[in-house]
Amino acid sequence: MLKKxxxxxxxxxxxxxxxxxxxxxxxxxxxxKNVKKVKIKMEIETIILEFLxxxxxxxxxxxxxxSIWQLLVATILSAQCTDVQVNKITPALFERFPEVDNMAKAxxxxxxxxxxxxxxxxxxxxxxxxxxxxxxxxxxxxxxxAMEELLRLxxxxxxxxxxxxxxxxxxxxGIVVDTHVKRISYRLGLTKHQENVExxxxxxxxxxxQKVWGELSHLMIFHGRKLCHSRSPxxxxxxxxxxxxxxxx
Length: 249
Ligand code: SF4
Prior knowledge:
Blueprint: H1 2-55, H2 68-77, H3 83-96, H4 100-105, H5 108-115, H6 121-138, H7 147-150, H8 158-169, H9 179-187, H10 197-207, H11 213-226, H12 245-248
Helix pairs in contact: 1-11, 2-8, 5-6, 9-11
């Protein structure tokens, strides 16, 4: 009788032991699968970044400026307008009003005349003048280097603030999401969002390390201008086609 009880206990202990070891094995497999998943995911982002770096070694901000204030003005003017067009009118604008305090004292009609060719000139001129006045009166004449403060300036949204922070101050606070970045991120499957720029920015920030945020947007903007056009992208010439959701459709 005693023997039977002992055998039973041993059997029970063995089955508990085997269950525990099975669970441990399952946990290990699950962990390995997750690691593999993360590795594959990281690999795709690295491939995208490396292809773009190789393709566009000179990608950079193309807006002409010689101070952070001028960069801010050029970025405000670039809304709904090409950098090439902005660069045509800013030399005359910056010659007439080179510093923030000159612009703060400028008459609105004079600024309007000088920025007319960039479109939406009345609003742009009003925002540039009001921003200049605020920088002089609130920020002691210096363009602020914090996102929250930049966002207080009239006409400055997250995109403009990101351009100024990254190109003017070398601070990667976020990622510039313009029309090219929006389109390419969606086509490459880096985001599920097509229009919501905040969500797209969040998705990109999650996927790429902070140190490349500024560079990434320049690379995507160059890719959008050279190959990944909105209407007829030159997919056959693109080294990302095998990774591209748009091409695979
Ligand atoms: S394959 Fe075509 S759509 Fe995809 S990223 Fe390249 S150019 Fe753009």
